[in-house]
Amino acid sequence: MDSILKAADQIDRQQIEEMVNVILDNDKELKRPRLFLFNLALTVATLVAVLMGWVGGALAFTIATAVALAVNYTAAEQRERITANGGDAIAVTSIIIAAGFFLGVLSGSGMSTAIAETLTHLIPESLGSHVGIIFALVGAIACYALPIDAYYFGILPVIAPIGAKYGLTPHEVGMASFMGQAIRYGSPTVAWLFLLMDRTEMSFADYQKEFFKYSIPMFVIFIVVAIVTGVLPV
């Protein structure tokens, strides 16, 4: 903390202004400060429509994007903006569609049921009283290795009765399943991470090395706090 404060003291007002100006000047030709209130109102209206359930998210954001492009840019500029961002949109969409196919195959083929049954046989009767912690560990592995929908919609509903067999309440099963979120964002099934790697010019392996230095201790902290507070019975 002392080193951070010393570093902050070495930054003078001029340096701060230079950093702010770099941000303000970035893509300056694309900014429309005179339309700030309109763009703010459009954004708020879109979010309200989605959150209130008046219209589906895909339709709402498609319409809002079309309106924003039409109001803010000329026809030529609109084509440039679509071309500049289209590649990223297609890449992310392709990954999400692939994850959907994976979830469909996992659920429709019966593999999720088979996985649950296999996990049931792997839990010895002697460890039945610690099944909450076991669920947390299984959830962490599943959150890392599988698309999130595949675990929460495909596998968890099948293995949840196992917890009931050993005396876990639905609330305790749910809390145990959330422990794995500590390491979720190191998973290769998180589509936007690849966009982040592309933008930061960082390899996924290097990202994971840094991420797990903090996420694994955080997972342990989650478990310890859950045990101390009685969320996970032992």
Care to describe what's here?
This protein has 2 domains: 2-72, no CATH class; 106-228, no CATH class. The chain starts with a helix and ends in a 6-residue tail after the last helix. The model has no long low-confidence stretch (mean pLDDT 79). The chain contains 11 helices and no strands. The longest helix is centred in the middle third of the chain and has 34 residues, at 75-108. The protein has helices spanning 2-9, 13-25, 36-51, 57-72, 75-108, 111-122, 131-145, 148-165, 170-178, 191-200, 204-228. It has 234 residues and is mostly helical.
Overall 3D shape: elongated
**Beta-strand level of the residues, as a percent range?**
under 5%
The tally of strands reads 0
**Protein structure class:** mainly alpha
Write down the Rg: 24 Å
Identify low-pLDDT runs: none
What secondary-structure arrangement, pairings included, does this model have?
Blueprint: H1 2-9, H2 13-25, H3 36-51, H4 57-72, H5 75-108, H6 111-122, H7 131-145, H8 148-165, H9 170-178, H10 191-200, H11 204-228
Helix pairs in contact: 3-4, 5-8, 5-10, 6-8, 7-9
